[in-house]
């Protein structure tokens, strides 16, 4: 038995799906032996054309003189058209055949296809007057003249199958056929043809976007049946009447005498479905979770149904968003304007709702939360948010309280001791675990369930409180130690609205922290074995070191150079030995080689009863068996060089204390020396240095890592947390935080502080400007020219090496050409030498002693020879790094005792710039400039220190118009009063660009 596939045109159906497909038998009775969707799936062409675009439904149609309900499906108009013009439509697929309706529609679609392909269609404008308003529509009409004059319309009327039109009682057959042709053609053009490319529309597209005519033009390319404009003002009506008249005149040649009937039927059709004016009041978003058990879970999706509430004929009425925006172009504009005013809160998909056929969208929990939290603001902009009544939400806008409770573990043996902690977090009477708090903030989730209620927490307050919580958690880590708790105590901010976190500690921790954070109020009595006298500030320093030992933490005594760090350390050592009268381990002191004899002499002066052993020279004890020789030794003194070389043999021994003198020697954390120092086993660690940080913050980390391993965290984390923010961004907050963290372990007093010392004389500093001579200037310029030529072609490490080597050469030229040449030059062939001799002359006349610092050993020899040449009766001494400790000490004693009246002590900056006490000198000359003012000050303080009773004159020589003067300017700009960060030694200079490098080194005016 053959089954026929039928199609009927339903004009009052959905604007897109106006065709309804169903099945009949050979006698046009309803076929019930097949389900239509199964047929579509079975039929190759139907499956390909319609399978994804059908909508199952029932339809009442006139069948065999009576109304019958037929089951089938609605099909889009463009899908039907594509199906009809497909050549495969003629292929038979038994037991199915094309019904009479499909064959009829196939003929109409073929005609419309020809018209469309040949451009036989035109845009049209018409209006409907109803409910005291004028509704204007756009439409694409076929060339009616061709359809009528070709007798096609007459033929179709004669051959019209009974089932091809389902019109209801509103329309007769002729009207139905007219609507089939005009509505299908309109839809065909909108769906199949790029309207904006049509040349005859060019004139219309130029109108202002806000004019009614522009709306008509825009409406021609949209899929909708709504009017493009509703006019209720006389002026708008007059304008549109003129537009309509112009368009009719333009299309007159395409019309036929019978065309008005088709247009009239179209206008009647539109008029029939126009409802009374609807006045929108607000947008309603009805939200409903698809997973009611976990509505705010990140994977739960919500349905959001969009309704419009308003008035129609004085009655309140709600309609779907699709029904609303289909009413008119103005309706869509009203909807869009409401959304754009609050666009930051609205889900993006809501803006595209007019492009769909659904009145609901799917939104995420984040979007729901955003809508909910903006409820009041949205309502003030006529957008109402509705949640399901069963979703019980309670508001909580209370302040957040975050408390960290710290308590000591089983014992307090030092900063590495483990501690216990517990978080107490609450919002009003709602308690949160740390995990809940973290999850809420990370997911930006303000809802939490308690019982049958969902509590809406103040997310902004949660986020504000989380910063402190997260920073504190990162400090504590997985296994918090006492050091972590101490860091928190030092940087803890006072509780406030901006910082709702507080730290609570047990009594034992309070007492421990108080002992560290507050300097001792009472001084410890001076030990009996100490024979010297301590000034008040020195007593406090010695007491502070002893207190740190009791707390089992290391400390850095960073007093200004010359304030007596050595005797404070000796008094501390004497005190610890007296506490442990027997069975004590030896104290280890490590210092520069030049200070070995000084330490020994100071012990002899201030603690003569202690047994001192200097581990130096070829006859020193073997390191592997050092234990056997230390039983009766109180203090072992050695140099950094010796200890680093023997560190593996010595690291098995546990020292009573280890003291690093001039501790800046371990400023580079990655050197073999620094690593060797950190491996030392000792009950207590101390560093003595006047410059705990010379150039970089990493130096401070290296010192603290030796004193209290792990306190400042791993080096990489320290760089991220402090070095980059402070050195690169000058972050003052981070700088303050770091200062607070290290304060308990660093004690620094300065000579300029009158409360520390009142009897120190003045220090007079002058910068002496020198002029290059012609030889120097010529050599200097040649080096600059070579750099300018080579620097533009080098990069990376090679570029840095080139810059640093050039800077060294230029500094040496400023000192003396002999540093770069082996030629037989005159010793006086230097402008700086000339100024140096001028300075020496009055000093010699007053029979005063002078220290001269240079960073180049060869320059030291040149100065030595030059002074002897001009002052044959002068005593000239030269201390440098290649001398043995014995020879260095002999030079120091000779300088102190010399009475010739013309005494000059030349010292290389590295060998003689630290640790020496040379208060016999009242003049200090820095012959060449170092990159770091802290190093120069340290060298100056060989003379300007306790024991100096005369004013000290300091001269800093630099050549005018050269690199030296420019470096001095840059250093002055880069000085930081708190930490003296001036970059990575000379390294910061290598980061300058080519132009900056040239500006740095070029010769300026008046250089000779």
TrEMBL record:
Q: Does the UniProt entry include the keyword Nucleotide-binding?
A: yes
* Entries under Gene3D superfamilies matching the protein: P-loop containing nucleotide triphosphate hydrolases, Tandem AAA-ATPase domain
Q: Where is the Helicase C-terminal domain?
A: 838-993
- Can you name one GO molecular function term for this protein? helicase activity
Q: Which UniProt keywords apply?
A: ATP-binding, Helicase, Hydrolase, Nucleotide-binding
**Record bears the keyword Translocase:** no
Record Pfam families: DUF3670, Helicase_C, SNF2-rel_dom
Q: Which residues form the Helicase ATP-binding domain?
A: 546-710
Name the UniProt record assigns to this protein: ATP-dependent helicase
Q: From which organism does this entry originate? A: Terrilactibacillus tamarindi
UniProt lineage: Bacteria, Bacillati, Bacillota, Bacilli, Bacillales
């Amino acid at each position: 038995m053959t089954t026929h596939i039928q199609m009927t045109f339903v004009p009052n159906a959905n604007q897109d799906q106006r065709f309804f497909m169903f099945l009949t038998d050979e006698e046009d009775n309803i076929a019930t032996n097949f389900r239509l969707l199964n047929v579509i799936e079975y039929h190759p062409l139907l499956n390909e054309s319609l399978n994804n675009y059908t909508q199952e439904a029932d339809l009442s149609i006139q069948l065999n003189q009576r109304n019958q309900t037929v089951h089938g499906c609605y099909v889009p108009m463009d899908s039907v058209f594509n199906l009809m013009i497909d050549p495969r439509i003629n292929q038979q697929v038994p037991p199915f055949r094309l019904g009479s309706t499909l064959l009829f529609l196939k003929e109409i679609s073929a005609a419309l296809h020809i018209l469309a392909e040949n451009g036989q269609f035109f845009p049209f404008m018409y209006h409907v007057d109803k409910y005291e308003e004028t509704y204007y529509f756009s439409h694409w009409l076929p060339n009616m003249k061709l359809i009528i004059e070709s007798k096609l319309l007459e033929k179709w009327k004669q051959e019209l199958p009974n089932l091809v039109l389902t019109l209801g009682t509103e329309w007769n057959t002729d009207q139905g056929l007219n609507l089939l042709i005009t509505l299908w053609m309109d839809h065909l053009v909108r769906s199949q043809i790029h309207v904006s490319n049509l040349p005859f529309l060019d004139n219309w597209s130029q109108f202002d976007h806000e004019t009614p005519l522009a709306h008509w033009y825009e409406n021609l390319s949209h899929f909708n049946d709504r009017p493009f404009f509703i006019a209720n003002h006389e002026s708008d009506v007059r304008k549109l009447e003129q537009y309509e008249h112009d368009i009719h005149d333009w299309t007159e040649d395409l019309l036929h005498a019978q065309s008005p009937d088709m247009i009239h039927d179209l206008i009647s059709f539109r008029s029939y479905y126009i409802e009374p004016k609807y006045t929108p009041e607000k947008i309603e978003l009805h939200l409903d979770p698809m997973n009611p058990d976990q509505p705010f879970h990140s994977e739960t999706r919500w349905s959001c149904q969009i309704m419009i509430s308003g008035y129609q004929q004085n009655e309140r009425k709600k309609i779907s968003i699709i029904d609303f925006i289909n009413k008119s172009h103005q309706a869509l504009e009203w909807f869009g304007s409401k959304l754009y005013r609050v666009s930051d809160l609205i889900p993006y998909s809501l803006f595209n709702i007019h492009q769909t056929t659904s009145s609901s969208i799917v939104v995420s929990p984040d979007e729901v939360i955003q809508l909910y939290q903006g409820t009041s603001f949205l309502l003030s902009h006529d957008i109402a948010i509705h949640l399901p009544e069963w979703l019980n939400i309670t508001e909580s806008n209370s302040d957040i309280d975050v408390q960290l409770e710290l308590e000591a573990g089983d014992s307090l043996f030092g900063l590495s001791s483990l501690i216990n902690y517990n978080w107490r977090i609450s919002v009003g009477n709602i308690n949160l675990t740390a995990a809940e708090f973290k999850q809420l903030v990370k997911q930006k989730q303000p809802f939490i369930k308690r019982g049958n209620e969902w509590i809406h927490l103040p997310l902004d307050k949660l986020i504000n409180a989380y910063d402190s919580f997260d920073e504190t958690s990162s400090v504590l880590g997985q296994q918090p130690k006492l050091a972590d708790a101490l860091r928190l105590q030092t940087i803890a901010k006072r509780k406030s609205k901006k910082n709702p976190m507080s730290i609570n500690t047990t009594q034992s921790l309070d007492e421990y922290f108080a002992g560290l954070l507050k300097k001792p109020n009472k001084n410890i009595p001076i030990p009996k074995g100490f024979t010297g006298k301590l000034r008040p500030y020195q007593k406090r320093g010695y007491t502070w070191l002893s207190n740190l030992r009791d707390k089992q933490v290391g400390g850095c005594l960073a007093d200004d150079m010359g304030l007596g760090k050595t005797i404070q350390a000796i008094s501390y050592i004497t005190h610890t030995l007296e506490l442990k009268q027997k069975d004590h381990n030896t104290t280890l002191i490590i210092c520069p080689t030049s200070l070995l004899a000084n330490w020994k002499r100071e012990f002899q002066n201030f603690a003569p009863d202690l047994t001192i052993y200097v581990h130096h020279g070829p006859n020193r004890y073997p390191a592997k068996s050092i234990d056997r020789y230390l039983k009766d030794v109180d203090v072992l003194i050695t140099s950094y060089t010796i200890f680093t070389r023997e560190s593996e043999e010595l690291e098995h021994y546990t020292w009573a204390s280890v003291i690093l003198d001039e501790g800046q020697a371990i400023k580079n954390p990655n050197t073999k020396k620094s690593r060797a120092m950190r491996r030392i086993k000792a009950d207590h660690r101390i560093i003595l240095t006047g410059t705990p940080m010379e150039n970089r913050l990493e130096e401070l980390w290296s010192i603290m890592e030796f004193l209290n391993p792990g306190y400042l965290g791993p080096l990489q984390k320290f760089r991220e947390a402090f070095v980059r923010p402070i050195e690169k961004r000058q972050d003052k907050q981070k700088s303050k935080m770091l200062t607070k963290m290290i304060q308990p372990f660093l004690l620094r007093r300065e000579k300029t502080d009158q409360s520390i010392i009142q009897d120190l004389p003045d220090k007079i500093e002058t910068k002496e400007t020198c002029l290059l001579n012609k030889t120097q200037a010529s050599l200097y310029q040649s080096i600059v020219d070579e750099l300018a030529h080579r620097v533009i072609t080098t990069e990376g490490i090679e570029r840095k090496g080139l810059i640093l080597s050039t800077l060294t050469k230029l500094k040496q030229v400023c000192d003396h050409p002999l540093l770069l040449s082996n030629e037989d030059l005159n010793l006086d062939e230097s402008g700086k030498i000339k100024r140096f001799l001028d300075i020496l002359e009055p000093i010699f006349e007053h029979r005063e002693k002078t220290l001269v610092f240079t960073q180049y050993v060869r320059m030291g020899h040149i100065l030595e020879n030059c002074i002897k040449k001009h002052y044959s009766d002068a005593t000239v001494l030269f201390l440098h790094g290649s001398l043995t400790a014995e020879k260095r000490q002999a030079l120091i004693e000779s300088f102190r005792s010399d009475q010739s009246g013309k005494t000059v002590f030349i010292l290389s900056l590295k060998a003689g710039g630290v640790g020496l006490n040379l208060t016999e000198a009242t003049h200090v000359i820095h012959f060449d400039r170092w990159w770091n003012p802290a190093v120069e000050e340290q060298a100056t303080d060989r003379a300007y220190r306790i024991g100096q009773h005369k004013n000290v004159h300091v001269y800093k020589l630099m050549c005018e118009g050269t690199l030296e003067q420019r470096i001095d300017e840059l250093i002055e700009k880069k000085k930081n009063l708190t930490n003296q960060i001036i970059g990575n030694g000379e390294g910061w200079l290598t980061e300058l660009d080519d132009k900056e490098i040239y500006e740095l080194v070029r010769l300026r005016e008046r250089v000779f």
